[in-house]
Write a structure and sequence with these properties.
The structure is a homodimer of 114-residue chains. By secondary structure, the first copy, chain A, is an alpha+beta fold. The first copy, chain A, has five helices and three strands; from the N terminus they run H-H-E-H-H-E-E-H. A three-stranded antiparallel beta sheet of chain A has the order 1-3-2. Chain A binds a DNA duplex (30 and 30 nucleotides) through helix 1, helix 4 and strand 3.
Chain lengths: 114, 114
DNA sequence: TTCATATATTTAAGTAACTTATATATTGCA
DNA sequence: TGCAATATATAAGTTACTTAAATATATGAA
């Protein structure tokens, strides 16, 4: 598992990107998918996930549909139009972030300002 | 500028990796180097940097040498032996983190579990 | 049948890595 | 003379999380 400090700020972007790729998803499904995609390196706790989803819904980024499955409630989330543009921004920002981190952990050996 | 939420947890690793690459550095120099390497995308504030350096010194990860330059004090930091192994772990963890993020922002199109 | 595990969502309380603000002091350029 | 750059330090505040506790059904193993 990667330290939670490192992962912290990226959870919202991860959730939004998964919803973009997979259409609608419910909370539990999202945590499973994150584990799968990251080979268990990133785990989304429920205490983090559900407040994020509720907040994004409140902000108009997501909408919900509640359905009954095996006598259990499932709350499906999907992106609004606003959500689509929020994801685009967030993913762009994350790509820049990754690039910046790579410049630090894999520095160009010859690159040196006098 | 990348949002501070995204950057937060990675500052310590960034500082340590820069010290590994550049030998000894002083605080102000570190903030400049981070800006340079990330094309201004990541800025280390002094309120973040100095407490990180002090804590790492206290933990025996870094040692200091204070020197006088132009009547200004410069506090140079460098890695201890312990620091060298801490950096190795932290950088390894960050590479895994980057890989996990890439699996999310650049998913394999054909990859789908039934 | 009974117990653990997986499924599924919710929210309150606590932590800590930061940001923001403030303080101090010198150099150098316009 | 006055601002920007250089250089370090720390107190106070924010907030995105973690941890913990609550609730409830389905399913397979013992």
């Amino acid at each position: 598992m990667i330290s939670t400090d490192l992962i912290k700020g990226s959870l919202k972007t991860i959730v939004l990107k998964l919803l973009k790729e997979n259409g609608r998803m419910y909370g539990y499904e999202i945590t499973r998918k994150v584990e799968e995609l990251t080979a268990g390196q990133i785990k989304l706790t429920y205490g983090a996930l559900y407040p994020i989803l509720h907040k994004l819904e409140y902000e108009g980024v997501l909408v919900t549909e509640s359905e009954n499955y095996n006598n259990r409630i499932r709350v499906y989330y999907s992106l609004t139009d606003k959500g689509e543009s929020v994801v685009a921004e967030k993913v762009k920002e994350m790509r820049q972030f990754i690039e910046s981190l790579q410049n630090i952990v894999n520095p160009q050996p010859g690159f040196n300002h006098a």
